[in-house]
Design goal:
globular; 9 helices; mainly alpha
């Protein structure tokens, strides 16, 4: 849950850092003064300290204890009493539960720490994509390389399956993207989705990609239809696909081999 608290910071700040960087690059290219950033302090994952968005009250250490502080403060800022989003403690709790499942599944093995890192990365990517429809390269690309590095030592699959998984993961969604664009003239998904599936393929090999695509499509269809039916979601408004890929990728990480084995045994039944 402590890591979940840090993930909240990354989910909130990394997109802002990306927009700030893009703005600075545009101003530099156009040779204009970026007046918005004059006299402003550095903004990154460490500085400035967390504060209330309403009154800018600095969050003290005892106010930042995962889950407990939220319950003790009754979901309100200790200074201005404005409401604190329940999403923060839910992400902390969610991170703790998924980490517990991963720890139980892999035990004290060489796979444990990499699997936890991948779990936290997938949580972060999911919520950033929900908020901003972005899958930052700052997360997907380093974790793609980390997956390949882990599989040099055969932690999750062999390096050949890992390399093919990275290539096949990217190309499979890229082909869907190109085909959809040629037929409709519209872009059906973002390039970040290609990189995310390539990342999952690098971690678990090409054999897990069909399961990941099927599970993510099923999750997307069920949740998307539910949003349209029960939340009056505009059909023209795009729905981020990254969270569904992340859910499917995490299921594949923990139970992928068991699901695939069960499916194969069912197919082979007379």
């Amino acid at each position: 849950m402590v890591i979940g608290s840090f993930l909240n910071v990354v989910i909130y700040r990394l997109p802002k850092m990306m927009h700030k960087s893009w703005n600075e690059e545009c101003c530099e290219f156009l040779e204009i003064v970026n007046e918005q950033d004059i006299d402003k302090q550095n903004y990154n994952l460490v500085f400035p300290n967390s504060q209330c968005p309403g009154c800018e009250h600095k969050i003290r250490a005892w106010e930042n204890i995962p889950l407990i502080s939220y319950l003790f403060l009754r979901g309100k800022c200790s200074s201005c009493r404005s409401s604190i989003s329940i999403r923060y403690p839910l992400i902390e709790l969610f991170s703790g539960l998924l980490s517990l499942i991963v720890a139980w599944h892999f035990g004290l093995s060489l796979q444990l720490i990499p699997a936890l890192l991948l779990t936290w990365a997938l949580i972060t990517l999911s919520f950033i994509d929900i908020d901003h429809q972005l899958l930052p390269d700052d997360i997907t690309l380093p974790f793609l390389w980390l997956g390949l590095l882990c599989n040099i030592f055969g932690l999750f699959t062999n390096i050949y399956s890992s390399l093919i998984g990275a290539m096949a993961g990217y190309l499979s969604l890229w082909l869907v993207y190109i085909s959809f664009k040629l037929v409709t003239g519209k872009e059906g998904m973002g390039h970040g989705d290609f990189k995310l599936l390539a990342m999952i393929g690098a971690w678990m090999g090409w054999e897990i990609l069909p399961l990941t695509i099927v599970l993510s499509s099923l999750c997307g269809a069920v949740i998307g239809v539910s949003m349209i039916m029960f939340q009056n979601h505009d059909r023209k408004q795009p729905i981020p696909f990254g969270p569904y890929l992340a859910i499917a990728g995490w299921i594949a990480l923990v139970w992928g081999q068991e699901i695939t084995a069960s499916y194969n045994s069912w197919l082979l039944q007379p």
